[in-house]
Amino acid sequence: MRIGIVSDIHANLEALEAVLAVLRGRGADHFANCGDIVGYGPDPGPCIDIVRGLHGWVVAGNHDYAVLGRTSAAGFNSAAGAAIAWTRKQLTANQQLFLRGLPLTSCCTPLVLVHGSPAAPAAWEYVFTLHDAEAQMDCYSESVCVVGHSHYPFAVERTAGRPARLITERSWELRPDAKYFVNAGSVGQPRDGDPRASCLLYDDRVRRMELLRVEYDVAAVQRKIRSAGLPEFLAVRLASGR
């Protein structure tokens, strides 16, 4: 089984379609999603429909819940808040029902999925540092936790008797004596300075994880954002990956 893992699509249809094409081309036959299907971008409904059609493992993100009013958007910046208000008007009843049914955590052994942190899934915590990631490792029993939320891809490995280390390789073997904390990055709004969509491919036959970056038509999404009347900032940031 090869699992394509995505997160933080944020209603970016062009990025999602490009990522799925690459993952399928690399043999992905199952899919997992670490939340935030909607928010920021111009195609929330179509993105929900595609994710629902994958019949994979999916967890809720804070933007998914904010659109439903299940979590507060009071702490969002003005652009994010405007996108949430706009998105609420775009979704059908069935699309809202799909978001409403998403759990905060899901497991597809050896992976556990959560949007922010396994320690407090409903708190939408950000995990940015090696130290923070290592602290999270005692909060799940599976060998690998995959998250999103920060839009910044990275991976941490901890083996028995050794301090945790940041994985610098783009492809790595999952050791049987190790535990891992992996951020999938963002499909629809990368923030690590690389505008290409980010995703993961996990091959359970050889226990190998790979981080992939995928080109997509940024300009087309920018045009859609502007046409929808969403904040200009949401269009501009896509070109810089910030």
From TrEMBL:
<dbReference type="InterPro" id="IPR029052">
    <property type="entry name" value="Metallo-depent_PP-like"/>
</dbReference>
<feature type="domain" description="Calcineurin-like phosphoesterase">
    <location>
        <begin position="1"/>
        <end position="201"/>
    </location>
</feature>
<dbReference type="GO" id="GO:0005737">
    <property type="term" value="C:cytoplasm"/>
</dbReference>
<dbReference type="InterPro" id="IPR050126">
    <property type="entry name" value="Ap4A_hydrolase"/>
</dbReference>
<dbReference type="Pfam" id="PF12850">
    <property type="entry name" value="Metallophos_2"/>
</dbReference>
<dbReference type="InterPro" id="IPR024654">
    <property type="entry name" value="Calcineurin-like_PHP_lpxH"/>
</dbReference>
<comment type="similarity">
    <text>Belongs to the metallophosphoesterase superfamily. YfcE family.</text>
</comment>
<dbReference type="GO" id="GO:0016791">
    <property type="term" value="F:phosphatase activity"/>
</dbReference>
<protein>
    <submittedName>
        <fullName>Metallophosphoesterase</fullName>
    </submittedName>
</protein>
<dbReference type="InterPro" id="IPR011152">
    <property type="entry name" value="Pesterase_MJ0912"/>
</dbReference>
